[in-house]
Amino acid sequence: MRAALRQPQLIVGPEIGWLRLRPLSPCTFLSLVPGWLTDSFKWDQKTFPTQGDGAVAHSLYKMIFLTALPLFWIMISASRGGHWGAWMPSSISAFEGTCVSIPCRFDFPDELRPAVVHGVWYFNSPYPKNYPPVVFKSRTQVVHESFQGRSRLLGDLGLRNCTLLLSNLSPELGGKYYFRGDLGGYNQYTFSEHSVLDIINTPNIVVPPEVVAGTEVEVSCMVPDNCPELHPELSWLGHDGLGEPTVLGRLREDEGTWVQVSLLHFVPTREANGHRLGCQASFPNTTLQFEGYASLDVKYPPVIVDVNSSVEAIEGSHVSLLCGADSNPPPLLTWMRDGTVLREAVAESLSLELEEVTPAEDGVYACLAENAYGQDNRTVGLSVMYAPWKPTVNGTVVAVEGETVSILCSTQSNPDPILTIFKEKQILATVIYENELQLELPAVTPEDDGEYWCVAENQYGQRATAFNLSVEFAPVILLESHCAAARDTVQCLCVVKSNPEPTVAFELPSRNVTVNETEREFVYSERSGLLLTSILTLRGQAQAPPRVICTSSNLYGTKSLELPFQGAHRLMWAKIGPVGAVVAFAILIAIVCYITQTRRKKNVTESPSFSAGDNPPVLFSSDFRISGAPEKYEAGAPPSQRLSSDDGPWLQQVWPGRKALKDFALRRRACQ
In this structure, are residues 483 and 508 in contact, taking their beta carbons and an 8 Å threshold? Predict the structure, then answer.
């Protein structure tokens, strides 16, 4: 509702500045109040009752009128000033076929003091040289044919009132209206300010910019009431079920124009969205009747009206999930899973397409619909049927002998699978329709070491996983370990069962010599599973073979065994494997080649106890000590790095480098 009566503005030409205000006495002011204003006030008093809602409206109107009196005092005082100026509403409207009164006041300099004041109203142009249509002319009463019998001056130009009345309005009369003051001679002035007339044929229904379901709203119907001869009456159309209308009455707008207002209060629902509401303006004692309509745009939160029920699908198939919602404005629909947005769009319905579904897509999906006025959500369960996944083993796969081992085999499938653990086709544990199976092995032994299988199966398929259990234990030297001699070569075989892999050393106690597996010139080692086979090769042995002790160690213990000697025909080539046989054969060939070459030397006595060349160095037996070798080593050197005079022909020190061994062979040959 627009309760008008703001201060009317006195509009002046840009070249004359603002009006000077001269004080007036209250009596003079009251004598200058236009009669139409006081008459209007008396009409409103009769129109509104003194009790009930009408009394409230009457009090409001009276307050507006009393507030307007000082403003009119200022306006009239200003109009008696001394500058060119005019006031009229910038725009005004009226129904086609009715009339309109354009209020107008003007002013001119006091020193002109004209005997008679004339005026002219122009249509659409303020300049006479453009020959605009004359709406009204006080001197000659000659007007444009469009305005003949339609225009009349309501104001008194002598009182500086230029109010114009236009009747029998038609659309071609809509436009701009300019007033020109004519005081005689050169004292003529066309005011640049003008009023725009709008000819209408429908009431104006004012709907709040936002109508929300469940919240009371006020819809108003406003029509112009600027014709003093015809006043409209308002009624509502299509308001059944919405509420009873309230006629507020005639109200004055900001610029002095008048409107009739009717109000309709109601609480809208979502069903009222799009409802067509109408207002009718009719003029008593005439056939004039005008109607206007407005569609209600009721805002309301979303309600999900369409969504899938729970869905079952086989892995690899196509799944479509649909969600639809009703709301205004259209909702933002979102498909989510575990807080992750999968798809969203502003629409009334939204589908989620899942191509070739996998078990990872199994779960609960949520459809969320929301707009600025609220939200709604629904959930859909998707169950993906699939074969078991490859089982995984979590638990102890490395254990020390005597410990208890716990192994957990787990998988995923839908429906749940049958789980089985077996070793060498022997079932050790099984469970039905469970995703986990636990195997307990108390006090494991080396025999528990080996490969195990975990198998999972359901009606959609079968998967299996192999895993190894590694049992760690102290070394065990097998009884098949021994030494064997052939000609001047002694080979000692030490077979050790151990986990983790042990270290192996050969000790010659009578010679105080220890050779370990890192000295690859003399020791060859090969591992197969839990067995480690080490071979020590001694060459140049012409006397009785020495005692050899095999010692094996790992982090769980140490074991030693004196290796028994067997005949030369039992070298047990098969025990050392193919690689060891190749190495031994290569050493044998080198020895034969060396002996053949030395026998061809006539000036050198044959000595089969030594062989020199580029072959890898081995332990030799001799009747003399190395010339130039140090008698003693530095204190603190380990026993395995010392030579003793009682070592006789046995070389207890692995001489560093091939060059030292070659020098040793050359000096021995020179002595022979």
Answer: no
388-442 confidence digits (pLDDT tens): 999 999 876 889 999 999 999 999 999 999 999 999 889 999 999 999 999 999 9
Q: Token pair of 636, please?
A: 């603190």
Q: What is the pLDDT of residue 396?
A: 66
pLDDT digits (tens, 9 = 90+) for 7-25: 333 333 333 232 333 334 3
**What is residue 518's predicted lDDT score, i.e. its pLDDT?**
83
DSSP class of residue 624 equals S
Q: Which of these, 403, 473, 478, lies nearest to 441 by C-alpha position? A: 403
The length of the chain is 672
Note the pLDDT of residue 84.
Answer: 85
Name residue 505's beta-bridge partners.
516, 551
> What φ, ψ does residue 57 adopt, rounded to 5°?
-65, -40
Average pLDDT, the chain: 77
Determine the 3-state secondary structure of 593 from DSSP: helix
345 vs 350: CA distance, rounded Å: 7
CB hemisphere CA count around 381 (13 angstroms): 4
Helices 52-79 and 35-47 sit at what angle, rounded to 10 degrees? 170
Q: Where are the beta strands (DSSP E) in 347-486?
A: 349-354, 363-371, 374-385, 392-395, 398-400, 405-410, 418-423, 426-432, 436-441, 450-458, 461-477, 482-486
Pairing mode, strands 105-107 and 363-371: unpaired
- Contact criterion met (CB below 8 Å) for 291 and 95: no
User: Which amino acid does the sequence have at 257?
Assistant: T
Please give the DSSP secondary-structure letter assigned to residue 522. Answer: T
Q: Are strands 340-346 and 332-337 parallel, antiparallel or unpaired?
A: antiparallel
Three-class DSSP labels, 540-579: CCCCCCCCCEEEEEECCEEEEEECCEECCCCCCHHHHHHH
DSSP state of 1: -
Non-local CB neighbours of 526 within 8 Å, separated by 6+ positions: 532, 533, 576, 577, 579, 580
Helix (H, G, I), strand (E, B) or coil at 204: strand
Cα–Cα distance, 153 to 136 (Å, whole number) = 8
Local confidence band at 592 (pLDDT 50, 70, 90 cut-offs): low
Which pair of structure tokens corresponds to residue 601?
A: 């030397």
Q: What are the CA-CA distances from residue 69 to residues 198, 329, 399, 510 (Å)?
A: 29, 48, 107, 140
Average pLDDT rounded to a whole number, residues 658-669: 42
Q: Which helix (H) or strand (E) holds 346?
A: strand 340-346
Residue 486 pLDDT exceeds 50: yes
Distance CA 254, CA 293 (A): 25
Within 8 A by CB and 6+ apart from 529, the residues are: none
**Where do the H-state alpha helices sit in 51-174?**
52-79
d(C-alpha 9, C-alpha 2), whole Å: 18
